[in-house]
Amino acid sequence: ITRLQCSDKGDIGFFKMHSHSVIVFEDCKVLHPKLNETIKVIRPILHHPWLNLKTIKMGYGEDFGKTVISIALEDDKLSEGPKKIIDSLMETNLITTVSVRGVERSAFATISYKAGKFFFQAHIESFIQANLEQNANLVETVVNLVKTISPKIVLDLFCGIGNISLPISRHVEKVNGVDLNKKAVKDAKGNAKINGIENCQFKQASALAEISKITNEGPLPDLVILDPPREGAKFESKELVKLGPKDIIYISCSPTTLARDLANFIKAGYSIQSISPIDMFPHSFHVESVTHLQK
Length: 295
Known about the structure:
Structural class: alpha/beta
Strand order of the largest sheet: 3-2-1-4-5-6-7
Number of strands: 16
Largest sheet: 7 strands, mixed
Order of helices and strands: EEEHEEHEEEEHEHEHEHEHEHEE
Strand content: 25-35%
């Protein structure tokens, strides 16, 4: 998975660090080779300033051997010009789906991958980890922690497409997954069915709303797993200590916000049992980590 940025001149690349200047690259060593190949093909097709491109999200699906692309335009309306561009992209034979604000030019808008013995499908607009090889290590790390903790009921906040919920389901009685992204929740339910998992339930809701609901109505989980976006869980961590689960597994992609949120947990009486770093973003200062807290 990668997200490309587009300049006013129609250039396609990545943002320069700490700026909004677009840097055009010939070949990115940390991208899947198929994505590099596709980028070279689509650049001349999409190099039109009048197209008003903002971002291009791309993912390589191993099942169909082609790329899924989602394009964000400045204008919500899909005029005749962009329609012709989409048709040109589909004709490259490298691309399975082009999606422009939900207007898709294929029935296959999904990316598929495996993590251990589990098979996942995700819509291009759902979140999945950019590095699928390290994602498998991430999942294994969390599963091993769950085996050690031996919880019965697990609450998985920011669950996405079930990337963590489904693999841990084999080792617990019940998993309740929560995510605000409607398409991700739909994917999670579909992935549970694909993998024959019956003890996972998924619902669309904010993490804060679900924490409040469970605090007031129950049932209380033995373990809470949270995998928030880069901005972390500033408010969720403060509410979560009121819920008071014995164990918390915090998956983070930002050491800065992780440190801030861990301070809230430690202040409430939790102690750090382990922190496992995972090099999800090689050749960058970003790092994924899995922290186990216990009270």
